[in-house]
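Side project, low priority. Logging it here so it doesn't get lost.
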Amino acid sequence: MNRPASRSPKAAVEAAVEAARWAPSVHNTQPWTFAVTGEEISLRADTERKLRVSDAEGRELLISCGAALFTMRTAIRRAGYEPVVRVMPDPDRPALLAVVKPGAAVEPDEGVSLLAAEIERRRTHRAGFTGLPVPERLVEALVKGAQAEGGRLTPVAAPDAVAVLAALTRAAQAVQAQDRRFSLEVIRWARPPGSKRADGVPAGAYPREPAPTEPHFAQRDYSWRHGWGSGNGDPGATSTGVVAVLTTPGDTPEDWLAAGQSLQRVLLHASAYGVSAAFHTQVLEMSHLREFLREELCSGEYPQMIMRLGITFDDKDAVRRPVEDLLG
C-alpha cells in the first residue's frame, strides 16, 4: 500500500527543477531551460549554449539534458511520486526534449534516497586518482544501473584496449589544440580566477599541470595561453582508475537522452560510494575517430562517453546558475 507523498505535487515540481540544475554538462554549459505549467515541467534544449565547433549535431548537449532529466526523475521519486515522462513529445518542437510530472504516490526506496543525496555532492574530476581501488561489486552495480536507463557501460579491462583509448584521446586532444576554433570554444567556457560567472569550468576545478597517469589520458586545456588552474594538483594521484565506455545501440536524439540518463545514474551511484568520474570526450567529437572506436572497440554500438572512475580526496566547489535564470 502506497503511503502519502512527503510533499505536494507542486513542491515536488519545484524540487525537481532545483535538483536538475546540478546535473553535469559538457564544460558546465548547463544547456537547458525549464517551463513549469501547473504540475508539469517542460525540459528544453538551450541551443544558444551548444558547442558549435565540437558538438555541431548537439549530441553532447542532449546527453547533458538527459542527465538533467534523470535528476528530475530522481527528485520527484524522492518527493514521493512516480515521475511520468514523455520524451520528445512534439516532432514540430525539437528543442522540447521531455515533459515530466508527478504521477502516483510511491514510497521512495533506499536506492532513490541514495542517489538523491548525491545530486549536489557529485563533482567532476579532471586529473589522476589515488591508488585506492574501485570495488568490483560497485562497478557491477554501475553497469546494471546504466542498463536500466537504456545505456551500456562497459569497463575496459584489457590493458591494450585501455592503451588504445588513451592514445586516441591524446591524438584527438593534440589535433584540437592545433585548431584555434576548438581552443577558443573551450576557453569560452573556462572561467578566469575570481570570476563570478555561474557557468563554465572554474579555474580551481582543474590543475594547471596534472600529474600524468599511465597510460596518460589527455585533459582539456582549459588554461590555454592563460596559465589558469589550481597549482599542480596532487602529485601522488597518478592512477588512471577504471576506464569505461558508455554506449547505446542507436545514435538518435532519443539515444543521446538515454545516454545522459544512464550517465547520471552511474555518476550519482558512484558518488554515493566516494567514487568520482573524469570525462574524455575529445575523440568522440571527431567523427572519423568516433566511428573507428565504434567499429573496433564497441562491438558496433555508438560510444557516447569515455570516462575514468576512481577515488580522489581533492574536493572542488561547483557553480550553477540560479533557478530563476533557467525558467523560460
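Brief comment: The chain has a mean pLDDT of 94.
Revisit when time allows.
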